[in-house]
Amino acid sequence: MSDQLVKIRNLWLEGRSDETWNPIINGVDLDLKKGEVLGLIGESGAGKSTLGLAAMGFCRDGVRVSKGSVEFDGIDLLNASAAAKRDLLGKRIAYVAQSAAASFNPAHKIIDQHVEGPTQHGVMSKEESEADGMELYRKLRLPNPDEIGFRYPHQVSGGQLQRAMTAMAMACRPDLIIFDEPTTALDVTTQIEVLAAIREIVEEFDTAAIYITHDLAVVAQMADRIKVLLKGDEVETAETRTMLTAPTQEYTKSLWAVRSFERPLKSPVIASAVPVVSVRSVDAAYGKVPVLHDVSFDMHEGRTVAVVGESGSGKSTTARCITGLLPPSAGEILFDGEVMPPSYKRRTKDQLRQVQMIYQMADTALNPRVTVGNIIARPVQFYSGLTGKALRKRVDSLMDQIELPADEYYKRLPSELSGGQKQRIGIARALAAEPKFIICDEVTSALDQLVAEGILRLLARLQDELSLSYMFITHDLATVRAIADEVVVMKEGRVVEQGPKREMFKPPHHPYTDLLLSSVPEMDPDWLTNLLAERGVDNIGDAAVDNM
Amino acid sequence: MGNVLTIILQRLALGVLTLLIVSIVIFVAVNLLPGDFAQLILGQGATEESVNSIRRDLGLDQPMVARYLTWLGGMLTGDLGSSFAQLNFATNMGGANTVTVLDQILPRLGNTMFLAGVTAVIAVPIAVTLGVLAALYRNTIFDRVANIATLSSISSPEFFMAYVLILVLAVINPIFPSLSNIYDGMALSDRLEKTMLPALTLTLVVTAHMMRMTRASIINLLASPYIEMARLKGMSPMRVIVKHALPNALAPIINVVALNLAYLITGVVVVEVVFVYPGIGQLFVDSVKIRDIPVVQACCLIFAAAYILLNLTADIMSILSNPRLRHPK
What we know:
Chain A is α/β, with parallel strands linked by helices. Chain A contains 23 helices and 20 strands.
């Protein structure tokens, strides 16, 4: 018997959109040995997930195989009967999805979903499988392993669910697991503990895995080999260390280079300068639930203040207080040294104009039925009162600023734009009001690295040209390093540390900042191993946050 | 469970409030009906005096607000009043032999509930099963046939379906009786036999709606990640639908079932007439004809209460079918 587990040869996949079939994967080969972990990386739309599912002999609705072969342990998956494939799925090939919260059935308890595979496939009895599930939960270091399975998915946190899903994939001790971006939706401190758990259990049971991600540093920790995909084509495949140190293809090199974008340091702010926006001792609450506690920081002209923290730390709530959408329960917001009314309803048009916002999901922030030109024209008209030719001229110049020429894009609908282009429209709409201050709420986190970098460069250029101030909300420290002048670290609604970027990235830190910084995966394939050795397996992730 | 209880109590309070508003609407609407009981019963030759005398006896000369309050007070104490039509004007008014509205309505309501119950027992399982199967075999011949069959049965007028059933099941193949004249003290088996044809007719009428909603709400969920997960765990298509999709599709299905049950209680006059079934619908129509206002009002209120109660039950069951509400964090 050979070592080979998966053998994909010259596989072509197509996806349907509007009655036509477009290529998704173009003649890719893939080999996986038993017990090996292959990293599959590429931007969204590169076809990683489709390829990963095809390795299970599975195509989503609207996807079809046009050519090629997929073999699993000598079994031809593309020509196997549906029943024969069902017999393999879950039992010998398992899948771990990106969002565990969406992939667990909300109607059933976690353990019931766990035992479904083993009992239906006749691998174990219900009792054996339940006991085994608890054992797996213990191995994956879930809290209360004997009890957690009897909860419903919504009663368990995202990081814990992701580990429970890994346990579920392990339930029948499969030969192969497909991990489809299992940590993308998680905070850095949670991500690290899921990564550690996955790596450990895959090693323990000698399971082969295909690990799909767009995060190079993550894949460096997990994979023995890496395959890079670009728009359905294979770019290159190599051992992880070789790939990291000596990529041969231009595209791979450019992926590595993304992290090198960094703005030059600016001279320190003059002490007497009046900040553009000043947040002073702000408390805020949703109903009776307090969310912010005594938040204070300043933002100066032409500077970028990055506000970092995990989800739920109060970053976006602070932004809502500044915009007046959520009037603070105590404290005040100053603009150019003057107190602004707490609610946007009582602010003057000029005060409203000065504070603009760019959103995380450009998809949902743009009206899908309005053309790009009108989306930008509306705030111009509202704030400046321009009409006719003057209005059009202003919109054209805004579109020039965001590098989307008006003659080509003016009449398009948002659905006819790419993710990065939509975000540029979001930027133009904010600029249309001619503000001094823009809040950027996770504006790059839904974008691929290369596209995100384009957006960051654009924002940097606009800042230099227009002396804009940015409040840049993010949980991604690489972005902070690239664009910030000053950093504010938030945790549980409080500012735990703030200062110029140079100081923030140098020790000594507040322990929480330290935890955040050290939890960001690095390109070094030994990073996770070293970190675990240094901190101990029980002092990472949520446990470490709780230990503080 | 605390918060589920709060939600349920809130819904109950809202239900009572709705009923109160509906009672006002009913009262006003019924009083706007043209014609007058006293005028009608005495005929055209009646003197103004005798008309007024009857109006006074019946309390029809009181202002509307006063009459409403009296009526509402009666309703709350379970006294629905006396039926005008059953009063014996020749002898003495309000004597011992007057028939109360309650006496008239209760047996009819019982019959209607019985018919609705029998229909529901037949129709709901058929509709849900057909819906699940149609979702499982979506876009196949089976799906299309089920869709077309149920759609055509809902599109044909009820009386037509009723006569077709009589023709096929009572005349050509005499399996069931074509008359459903049930009465008190009948054995349950006889009752069931006599009720079968109207129940089957109503089944044909209500199945389509419930079946299509079952199918649609299941198919709606098939793109969910957890359904994909179930497939990727190698579960059979039937198990994916029944175990993974159906429990999450319950809320809309429950709502449609409740709506159809309400229809079965309130909207089946035509079928009752065709089969001479002594239900509340017939009583209602007859009472409107002779301006028997207390009966009309009571019927309306019962219909409204049935709608509100069934929708309330559906709401509560939808809430209970949601594990997020049943098991808070």
